[in-house]
Amino acid sequence: MNKRNNIIFPVVLSLCLAPSAYSQEAETTVATDSLKGKVQLPFRAVDEADVLGGVSSVNVADLEKKSYSTYSLANMQSLVTGYNGQLWDMGNALVLVDGVPRDADNILPQEIESISFLKGAQAVVLYGSMASKGAILITTKRGNTDGLRVNVRGIATLFVPKSYTNYLGAAEYMTLYNEARANDGLSAAFSPEEIYNYASGINPWRYPDINFFSQDYVKSHYMKYEGQAEFRGGGKFAQFYALVGINHTNSVINFGEGKNNGSTRLNVRGNIDLNLNEWVTGWVNTSATFYDNRYDRSDFWAQSAVMRPTVPGTNPLVPLIPIAAIEDSDENSWILANNAKYIIDGKYLLGGTQENQTNPFAAMYAAGYAKQTTRQLQFDAGVRVNLTKAVEGLSFTARGAVDYNTGYVTSIENEYAVYQATWTHYGGKDVIAGLTKYGKDLSTGTQKVGASSERQTMMFTGQFDYKRAFGDVHNIDATLVGHIYKRSLTGRYHSKTNASVALRAAYNYDSRYYAEFNGAINHSSALAPGHRDGFSPVGSIGWRLSKEEWLKDSPVVDELRVNATYGQILQDIDITGDITDEDFDSRYYLWDTKFTADGNYWSWSDGSTGGQQTFLSTQGGNRELTFVKRREFNVGIDGSLWKGALRFNGSFFTTDVDGLPVKASTLYPSYFATYYPQSSFVPWINYNKQRISGFDFGASGKMDFGQFELEIGANVMYAKRKNLKISENVEYDWLRTEGANSDALRGYHCLGFFQSEEEIAGSAVINNNTRPGDLKYQDMNNDGIIDYRDMVEIGSWSSPWTYGLNLTARYKGFTLFVAGTGNAGGTAVKDNKSAWVYGDGKYSDIVRGRWTKETAATATYPRLTTQGGDLNFVTSDFWTFSSDAFYLNQVQLTYDFPDRWFDSKFVKGLQLFVNGNDLLTISKERKYRETAVGAMPQTRSYNFGVKVNF
C-alpha cells in the first residue's frame, strides 16, 4: 500500500466497529469495487447471462449518482419487475444484508452496491423456510486497490405536510350536534346564544374555537440535516470501505415541548477484505447505528382526531388562560396565578377543566418528554479457502454473524396543575371573576427508564463450492451448504430459527443449455418431534437462444434467454394459527393438546364446598401437522436488442400455497367444541389452499442524440390470489370464500338512503332504530333482517395490477431522473375517524353532505346521529372507492461539474442536486388518501444536496 493508505488504514480499521455485513462470493475475488456485472444470489454471485429467471437486480451504486434517498428500497417498484413492496404478491420477503437477515431500514442506500430481488423458487430454496415468500439481498460496498477515495455529502431536507383533516369549527359543530340529537328524538344540547358567542369570536379565551392545525400549534414545514463521509482504499493484501453518517430531523409542532421533538441518527460502517495468501481470503464487516428519538408526552396527534370543540353540559377547554383578564380585585385568583409554576410567555396559565385536567395543550407545555434510544451493533466475518490444489475447482467458505439490537425509553414525567376561569361581563368587557385550580405542580426531576427490549441475531454458514469446466463447453457448478439462523427477542421463550442443509448442482453446455437442481432439507421447531424435517426440491432448465448458430450473428438480437422452473418449498412461516404477537411462543405448540385451568364450574358430592378447579381443553392434538408447501411453476424470458438499446424481461408464475393450518371445526362433530364452558378438542390441521398466479414484464430503452441521452424504463405486474380450498360451512353461495379472491373485501350492498318511515316499514333493516337518512342494504336472503348473511364481495383489498416507470435524461453535466409507480383494480374503504362520525365523534367537513329532508336528493352522507354506528358505519359499498392511483415518487435534477475543472486538484469532483419526493398523487380520493387522521401528517420532501469527491 502507498504511504497515504498506510496512514488511513488503521484509522478506518478502528471505524469498522459499526454496522455492516458481507456475504463473500465463492466466484469472486475479495476486494472488488463492485459485483462487476454479476448478480448476487444465495451464497454466490453469477454472471447475469447465467441467471435462470425469477431474479431482478439493481445497481444501487449507479442509481445513487442520480437519485438520492434515505431508504434502501425507495423507488424500487419503478425499477424492478415483480416487486410492489412484496415479491410476486407473496407476502413479506426475507431481507438479507450481506447474507445476514437484517432490517432494510437500518442501512442507507449510500452504503449499498447492489440489490437482488429473488422471486422464483429456484432463487430462494437454498435459504430454506424463511425465504419462502421471496428474498431481497442487499450487498454493501467494498474497498478498492487504486488509492484512497473520499466522498463527502451534505443534504438539507424540507418536509411539507400534504394535508390536514378539515374539522368543523365550534359554532358549526354545535349546530350540527343539535341536529344529530334532533334526528335521535332528543332535545338540543346548545342554545342559540351559546352558538352565537362561539361564532362571533368576541372572546376566544371564553369561547374558544380550537384548530389543532393552525399556525399556533404546527409549522408550515420542518427540516432534516444530514452529513456523510465515505472512505475507500487499500492495496494488494487489504482493502477497506467505511462510511460515517449523521442526521437530525426536527419537529413540525410549534409550541411547548413539541418544539424540542426530533430524532438523531449516527451510523458507522466498516468493511475490510483481506488477501492472506493466494489461497486464503477473508473479510470482516462491522456496523453500528445509534438512534435517539425525543418526543413530547401530550398525545397531540391522537387527540386532534377525537377532542371535540366543546362538550355539552361542561365548561369549554381553553388551552391558555390570559392572566391580564383576571379582575383586579380578585385576590384569590391573583394568588393562584402568582404561584403557578407554569406561566406561558409570561402571560398565560395552563387551561383545563374538571373533565380535562390532563389535555394535550397543557401536557405539551408541562408533562415532560420521553426519549426512545436504540442501538444496533452488527458484526460478521468469513474466510474462503481455495482447495483447488487438492481437488481442482473446489473451495470452502465459512461465515458467521452476531447482531445486537437494544432499546429503551427514558422520560421526565411531570404532574401539572390546570386552571378553569369563571368569566363575567364587567365594566363593558369580559373579565375573569374566579379561577379554579385542578391538580398540582410536581416535578421530581427523576429520569425514568422503561420499555427495554433486546434482539439478538446469530447466523453461521459453511459451504463447499465446486466449479469446473471440461473441454471448454461442459461447465459444472455445485454447492453444498449448511445454514442456521437464530433470532432471540425479549419476552419470548422460543427463538425464531431457520436451519437447512442444501445442495445445488448445475450444468450448462457451452453457456447455451442449462439444467439446475436445488434441494434443501428444512428443519422446523414449530412441528412435533419426528416431523420437523422435510425436503424441498426445485428443478430448472434454461436455453440461451442467442448463442445458437442461427441467431448469434443477428444484427438485432444481442441476448435472448428462456427458462422454466418447477418445484416445492416447505415452509413454516404460515404455521402461526390465530396467535397474536404477544403470544408468539404458542405457534410452536399448534400440534400439541392444550389444557388450561379455567374457572370453577362443578361442585362434587364429596363433602367439599364450593366449585372445584376445572381444566378445559382448548386445542386438540395433531402430531401429523406438517410444513406448508409452496408449489410453483414459472417460466421466464430475458433479452437485449440492438446492442442494448432495448432490454426486456418477463415471467409467468403460478404458486400454490397448500396445507395452511386451520382449526377446521366444520370437519369435526359439533360436540368437539362447546361455548359454555368455552372448550375445544378440535386440532389444527393442514387444510386450506391458496393460489397466486400472474405475470410480470419490464422493458427499458436508451437513445443517444448527440450530447443528449435518454433512458426510459417501465414494468408491470399482474398477480391474483384465489382460495382453492377452504374449511367452511356456509348457508348461501355468496358467503362462500372457496373459489373467491383470497383478499376479497366483503360487506353490504348499499341501495341508497331510506327516504321515509313507510319505506323503512317495508324493508329489511339492521335494527329498529333505523330512521330516514340511514343507509339501506340489500337483503340477499330475503329474511327481512340485515345481518352477516347478507354480506357479499364488494371489492378486493389489494390491487392485482401494479406498475412502475422511470426516466433518465442527460445533457452535458445535467441529469434528470423521474420515478413513478401506480396500481389498479383494488378497492379501499373510507372508514377512518374523520369519515365515520357518530356518537360523540369529532365532525369533519365530510358531514356537510349529510342527509336531511331538504337535501334528500343530493345527500352524500348519512343522517347525523349521537347514537352508535351499527346502522351506517359498517363496511358497505357506500364507503368503497377505487384505489387506482399513480404516484410521482421522485424527480431529481443533478449537475456534475466538468472533470477538467479538477485536474491535478485536491478536490476531484463536485455534484449538486435537488429533488422532490411524493410530489403528486393522481387518484379519485387523493385528499382522503393523503390525510393522516390521529397521526403526524404525510409529507412531501425536497432535498438540496452537495457531494464533493477527494
Low-confidence parts, pLDDT < 50 over ≥5 residues?
1-34
Class per helix and strand makeup:
mainly beta
The largest sheet, given as strand count, sense and whether it forms a barrel, is: 22 strands, antiparallel, barrel
- Total beta-strand segments: 43
Strand content: over 45%
Quickly count the helices: 10
Distance between the termini: 18 Å
Mean pLDDT score, rounded?
91
Computed over alpha carbons, the radius of gyration is 33 Å
* Helix proportion: under 10%
**What's the shape?**
globular
Summarize the structure.
The protein is mainly beta and 950 residues long. It is built from ten helices and 43 strands.
SSE diagram, text form:
Elements: H1 3-15, E1 38-41, E2 44-47, E3 55-59, H2 60-63, E4 94-97, E5 100-101, E6 112-118, H3 121-124, E7 135-140, E8 149-161, H4 170-183, H5 192-200, E9 222-234, E10 238-249, E11 262-275, E12 280-296, H6 300-304, E13 320-322, H7 331-338, E14 348-350, H8 360-366, E15 368-386, E16 394-413, E17 418-426, E18 429-438, E19 448-470, E20 474-489, E21 496-509, E22 513-523, E23 533-544, E24 557-571, E25 594-602, E26 612-619, E27 628-641, E28 646-663, E29 673-675, E30 678-680, E31 684-705, E32 708-725, E33 744-747, E34 750-753, H9 757-761, E35 775-777, E36 792-796, E37 801-811, E38 814-824, E39 827-829, E40 880-882, E41 885-896, E42 909-923, H10 926-930, E43 939-949
Parallel strand pairs: 4-7
Antiparallel strand pairs: 1-2, 3-6, 4-5, 6-7, 8-9, 8-43, 9-10, 10-11, 11-12, 12-15, 13-14, 15-16, 16-19, 17-18, 19-20, 20-21, 21-22, 22-23, 23-24, 24-27, 25-26, 27-28, 28-31, 29-30, 31-32, 32-37, 33-36, 34-35, 37-38, 38-41, 39-40, 41-42, 42-43
Helix pairs in contact: 4-5
